[in-house]
Amino acid sequence: MLEATPNGGPNVPPAMMSEQALADAIATLPRERVAFLPTPLEECPRLSQALGATRILMKRDDLTGLAFGGNKGRHLEFRMGDVKAKGCDVYINVNRWESNDARIMAAACAKLGVRYVLVVRGGVGKPMEANLLLEHLMGAEIHPLETMDRDETNQEAERIGLQLQEEGYTPYVYHQQPFARVAGTIGYLEATVELAAQLAERNIHPDYIYGVAGTSMAGIALATKLLGYPWKVRAISSGDRRNLGNMMLEYGQEVQDILGLPDCLQPDDFGYWDEYIGGEYAVPTPDSARAIKLAAETEALILDPVYTGKALAGLMDHIDQGLVDSSDTVVFVHTGGLPNLFASTFRESLSDAIGSG
Ligand SMILES: Cc1ncc(COP(=O)(O)O)c(C=O)c1O
Hints:
The chain is of the alpha/beta class. The protein has two domains: 9-69 and 179-354, Rossmann fold (3-Layer(aba) Sandwich); 72-178, Rossmann fold (3-Layer(aba) Sandwich), CATH 3.40.50. The protein is built from twelve helices and ten strands. α10 (286-299) packs across α11 (308-321). The longest helix has 24 residues, at 178-201. The radius of gyration is 20 Å and the shape is globular. Bound molecules: pyridoxal-5'-phosphate. The site of pyridoxal-5'-phosphate (PLP) has 15 residues, from α4 and α8.
């Protein structure tokens, strides 16, 4: 766990800029509006009751559209803006077979008429189901590779890029585009303002915003600091990189530079926990399986086995440990990832953990 003196409480620092000034800075970027926004903010009374009365609301970013939605619906609006602004006509992505990013970029490319090439790390022999099935349906040109090595798979993407260039295309190779990496942080600056307006309208004053550590939570932490929102931001890692807390800081700082925002994000502006990853990335833990089951049976709210299940398991443990109190209010950001629930690999590990239910 890593949480120094988080913002929030009676000593909330004042806003460093207005919501309008932030919106104006974001509006300077090219953008393709394809996601369903704003997403709903849902009260979860039965889940709250099951967890000892802490009030819980879900920010339903699993409902952003684009082939089963997710946080990347917000990211890709800026990525695709960059693609179009650079005059590119092929998007080349490299990712794992479980990747939600790979699926939602396939959706964006299909919708906007951009050719989509996907190099899949460790993709050889993977069954055509879940995200992979959707990618095939949406016309992705899939290159499965045996190797999981990032350098090797990136080189393959670059090789395909050069070949397409010779054929007259203008490719956008994801890992060679630093902006594409932080587009999610920009999307979540705006998501935080959207959430603040929904909360104000309903006179709700959360103590914490919880979610999966990554570019999105970096945006929430940065917007919270810039705009002086009175809540603490807590990020639970589900990822394979145990230094994701440091990376969140880097994402925030890069976005400050891109948008010319005050240089403000500090390590103690958000809490970060990586102990809920369990043994491995993309392998559900018994606690995450229990969290998925509880959310489903109390609220018909479906979480995913790679990311949000582990994040809710983290929140549940924080409630057990007293890091969140029964009088507190929490907004949990549901970042999506739902197709993976239908992948046979996860079905087995989930049914092991859940039993017959
Ligand atoms: C469903 C889901 N939630 C959260 C994340 C965390 O990362 P980020 O915020 O960078 O998208 C991911 C990353 O792939 C994801 O697929």
